[in-house]
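forwarding from the other thread:

> can someone predict this with copper (II) ion?

sure thing
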Amino acid sequence: MIGFLISLGIILLIIAGVQLVKVLDLSAELQGKGNENEVSTEGENRTNGTLYFLFMIAFFGFVIWLTARYKDFLLPAPASEHGQGIDDMMHLNLVIIAIVFFITNILLFFFAFRYYGRKNGKATFYPHNNKLEVAWTITPMIALAGLITYGLTIWNSTMSTTKYAPDEYLKIELYAKQFDWTAHYAGADKAFGKASYRLITPANVLGLDSTDAHNADDKITKELHLPVNKPVLLTFRSRDVIHSAYLPHFRVQMNCVPGMTTQFAFTPTKTTAEMRQDPFVINKYAKINELRHERLPGEEDVQFDYLLLCNKICGTAHNNMQLKVVVETEEEFNAWLAQQSTFIDNTTK
Ligand SMILES: [Cu+2]
């Protein structure tokens, strides 16, 4: 309600401002000053030109300051086999964009400053130049073709699920619903059985068919554990709307679409414990905890954990849609998985 009143207040202020300008214009016209006001003086042009130049400096300064200020809060180095390829591609794109950004903005603001309107100045009439047209059509074309080819090569190698034999993958399904995730391990038979939304009950959140033998040994968990350096095939399903499974530290993202199964294969290369020892992560979490203590005095420190997040705005509690991910050694993983009860145990309890 307060938000609505504030918006209404701002709209009324804008309307009042517009009306005031109209009244001032009309009164100037009545006083016969209309024509004089329409032409700006050389002094005004010079002021505007200088302001453009100052704006350029402030704008670049702000961009550089923002980049330096928040660089420690970026993602740490990738923790998956394919991650470095994705990062390299992103960095190349960022460098190209930054170069174009600085050149075009320098030209824009510097020219406005250098060539502001002077009394006897005359603009050159320069309507067309074939060479120039060809150059600025061909240059972006070659640059884009190169970037797209490079991007597609990375995409194809990243999205490949045939790098390993099918039974070499650890098969896990991630089930999305508003607003949480459930992990579903395929069990010793490495296969998922039938499932249907009609079978969903509070005890059977994935709607698994208990008459299908493939489901019997499956394990359903509220944490995603992964053994390090083992290829994992993640399949995704959604119960209600489109969600997007986002594992930023592994550079993985895949949409979860109701009515269909999507998938992604990757190999985690660093355990949670190793990431907690990474100097970048230590520095990042020291800063995060500093901010937390400022805002929430007495709160305990948080430490690094891999996370699975939802990257589609899927409803009111979308921001809370996350699952803890633990990457550990194979022995630790096997010990953890052995402790989890199977689907058949749960449903016959
Ligand atoms: Cu979601």
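The chain has ten helices and ten strands. thats all i got for now
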